[in-house]
Amino acid sequence: MRPLPSESRKNRGISLGLLALCLAAARCLQSQGVSLYIPQPTINATVEEDILLSVEYSCHGVPTIEWKYTSNWGAQKIVEWQPGTQANISQSHKDRLCTFDNGSILLFSVSVRDSGYYVITVTERLGRSQFGTIVLHVSEILYEDLHFVAVFLAFLAAVAALLISLMWVCNKCAYKFQRRRHKLKESTTEEMELQGVEC
């Protein structure tokens, strides 16, 4: 027995309605979530370098972005802001930090004390949040150590050259003194011989 045309239209309408409802629910759930991407979770840097802690996020509405810093010296919130507004930067990072609307921050002239964990939290207006971590290792510049070694070796070479020059001068003086003494001895001997002949 074939279904009546009105029943098949009714079933098709219900199926399309359910499909539209599912798509709308999926889109609503997707738009309310927060996603966060960190392209470089570990960064190695040297002293005095400017470092970009790069992130990308997506969420519904304007989020609140917060960065915290944790290291052997303790933990602290370093900055908090909403894109398009002025950032609230901690006193320890004033004039050393720049924020971007995509959530990234730029640290100027890092030092060894800046090594540690940088945790970003992106919170949307409905309260959902996502966090991620970037590990920063800051080390001393190797060429400064090599520069010190080179300067020290140059100093040692200069001292060695000075000592060699002094030894050469002393040797010359000693040689001249010995020649003069030898000549004096010879002249004294000749005088004694002459005196012996005269007597």
What does this structure look like?
InterPro entries: CD2/SLAM_rcpt, Ig-like_dom_sf, Ig-like_fold, Ig_sub, NK_rcpt_2B4_Ig_dom. With 199 residues, the protein is of the alpha+beta class. It folds into two domains: 109 residues, Sandwich (Immunoglobulin-like), CATH 2.60.40; 49 residues. The chain has two helices and eleven strands, in the order H-E-E-E-E-E-E-E-E-E-E-E-H. It has a six-stranded mixed beta sheet, with no helix packed on it. A hairpin with a 5-residue loop joins strand 10 and strand 11. The termini are far apart.
Can I get a quick summary?
With 199 residues, this protein is α+β, with helices and mostly antiparallel strands. The chain has helices at 5-32, 142-198, and strands spanning 35-37, 42-46, 51-53, 56-58, 64-71, 74-81, 88-89, 97-99, 105-107, 116-123, 129-139. Strands 2-11-10-5-6-7 form a 6-stranded mixed sheet, with no helix packed on it. Strands 3-9-8 form a 3-stranded antiparallel sheet, with no helix packed on it. Strands 1-4 form a two-stranded antiparallel ribbon.
Q: How are the SSEs placed, and which strands pair?
A:
Elements: H1 5-32, E1 35-37, E2 42-46, E3 51-53, E4 56-58, E5 64-71, E6 74-81, E7 88-89, E8 97-99, E9 105-107, E10 116-123, E11 129-139, H2 142-198
Parallel strand pairs: 2-11
Antiparallel strand pairs: 1-4, 3-9, 5-6, 5-10, 6-7, 8-9, 10-11
Pfam families: Receptor_2B4
Subunit structure: Can homooligomerize through cis interactions within the same cell membrane.
Protein name: V-set and transmembrane domain-containing protein 5
